Structure prediction request, 382 residues.
Amino acid sequence: MPPVITCVEDLRLLAKKRVPRMFYDYADSGSWTEGTYRANESDFARIKLRQRVAVNMEHRSLKSTMVGQDLAMPVALAPVGLVGMQHADGEILAARAAEKFGVPFTLSTMSICSIEDVAENVEKPFWFQLYVMRDRDFIRRLIDRAKAAGCSALVLTLDLQIMGQRNKDIRNGLSAPPKITLRNMLNMSTKPRWGLGMLATRRHTFRNVVGHATDSANLSSLSEWSDRQLDPTMSWDDVQWIKERWGGKLILKGIMDAEDAEIAARSGADAIIVSNHGGRQLDGAPSSITALGPIVQAVGGKIEVHMDGGVRSGQDVIKAIALGAKGVYIGRAFVYGLGAMGEAGVTKCLEIIRKELDVTMAFCGLRDVRQVDKSILLPGSY
Prediction:
């Protein structure tokens, strides 16, 4: 009998059974003590909702926009590296699910499927996420490839100038494809569904990078690449030349401080994402939902503000919208769905979040997600 899936946590538990340890741990972990990673999720629970009664709940709408794009709900799939190691051809499957559902999919620079792989398998534009690297010529060509593929927004990640210490990845010897060690082989032997899928695809390494960047022919390790290429000298000047090279919608990801948000608002970008990289960079930083309010207060009237980190339900989405986010990104949630059930699992994740968002909005006395604001929250709980 197939498992009964009622929430994102059910998808997480199923993914844990079906995905090899090194790739499950890559998605489901943070840096150092993982304090910020845990706070991203737990801090949502402190925010309480006002339940309203005897109001008309008919004809509800979750339709919204992010950077001018019409969406079925104010949710996008966040950029996540190595998605194609959670499930064979994972980025393609996730992009298909997002397209059918009517929300954006964001492809990571460090994806297994390339920009071109995804573009060949979807009909509508997707978004592309870019890191600032030492090899500026490679960045220029990446931007040009994203433009050629018809990507409708560029998400520039600002909080990965250096790599945070992710202890589980170090212990597991994370690589793509996985290193052939006794421990890894024994673990993978318990994941036959995953293994058969990987045998059926040719996509096993970082296809945006290998063959496109200097000294990338044998690239398998994310940390290996970051040590060589992530640029600790990145500045706001780099943001400006990337904006000019791209020429389209630009979203800046990794803003956690109101002062940085002010600079971002003056940069000419179209939106910012309040994000601590899923708790995978600076352990000890505040949760994204805690940082959201002050940033919205500082720049909400100047630039579109999005939020990422710890979102596991439709209730988390509506709380972020109430605190001023124009849109919310899900990363781990859709990765759990992918690892559990492939494309159907990503669709299931989106369906769960849509249902939870819709029902919660109704209980709060509203019929249109565009009307959601702080009035649905219990004073003193946020």
Remarks:
- The mean pLDDT is 95.
- Residues 72 and 370 are 12 Å apart (CA to CA).
- The longest helix spans residues 343-363.
- The beta strands are 64-66, 69-71, 75-77, 106-107, 127-131, 153-157, 250-255, 271-274, 304-308, 327-330.
